């Protein structure tokens, strides 16, 4: 299991990097003299390249030794984060974030495949849980930890820390990781072919809409909070979101096992998430009450991932790995588009304090779509 934990550390670093920029937006905006909506595109381009890199580069590198590809992916990711720390202008920052997203997108699906291949069949669930858990914990804790780091060493220092973590992980894989053959990650052709299945497309569409709302809004959470009166420090609220995310992602599996109805659970999750987002601007008028909707947002946003994966595995038992990987791409692609749309809306004059209403409306649309899916299953 040592190598599985090594993969989990790598996945934690990727998740940490994916959304740490959301907590650094105000400082980055001040450095480059740009708006928060512009600096938020650094999140968009990372997550967009993350979502697209996996199928494209998996096809190009198919058949290569797994250790070689993992080391190459993390080396690209590490160097790109060092370049982000050294960025002297906004354009160079975007280029470096795109390169980091490509490295992350190549590493992530291959790490999951490798984790399942490193252990006996009866331990594969645990190995995958550890590996994917590293990603989710890194993602939900990226913003609050990023703020703490930025306050101490600046936003450039935050990227240097990620680069150091990446360097250590890369060296660890070069020294300790075994060189073996395994099944290649899903190819571009496999993912495109999967989109012709209506059931898969419907499930992934819900994931896509929910991630536009939840992860897209999360990109601007620092801006949303700082624009509201009565909040002197946003860090406690970010920890509330992170705590909700950890609890939601780790506990939802038990509910799935007990009910055996992921589609019904997804209806409840989306309903609660929409209420939480619509109530957020009102709750923030009373800072002490604001923790609850933010906690609910984090918990429900991350709890929505597992039911979708379970539904896809049930729908496509022979091609479950491809379907789940496609769902992961849709999740991060939705986050990228959500960040881009949020930035465009703010650039057109929409106040960041109104973004939760737009996000809540998208979740409500996803809820209606999920209700239709549930009704068809019951017919």
Q: How would you describe what is shown here?
A:
The protein is mainly α and 379 residues long. 83% of the residues lie in helices and 0% in strands. Helix 5 (90-118) packs across helix 6. The chain starts with a helix and ends with a helix. The model has no long low-confidence stretch (mean pLDDT 83). The chain crosses the membrane at residues 42-62, 69-92, 98-120, 127-151, 157-178, 199-218, 238-256, 263-282, 288-308, 329-349, 355-374. It is found in: Cell membrane.
Question: Can you describe this structure in just a few lines?
Answer:
It is a multi-pass membrane protein. The protein has 379 residues and is mostly helical.
Structural class: mainly alpha
State the end-to-end distance: 45 Å
- Overall pLDDT confidence: 83
User: Residue share in helices?
Assistant: over 70%
Strand content: under 5%
Number of strands: 0
Number of helices: 15
User: Per the principal axes of the C-alpha atoms, what is the gross shape?
Assistant: globular
**CATH class group of the largest domain:** Mainly Alpha
Order of helices and strands: HHHHHHHHHHHHHHH
Give unreliable regions as ranges. Answer: none
What is the domain total for the residues? 2
CATH architecture annotation of the largest domain? Up-down Bundle
Q: Whole-number radius of gyration?
A: 20 Å
Q: How does the major sheet shape up?
A: none
**Superfamily (CATH H level) name of the largest domain:** MFS general substrate transporter like domains
CATH topology of the largest domain: Growth Hormone, Chain: A
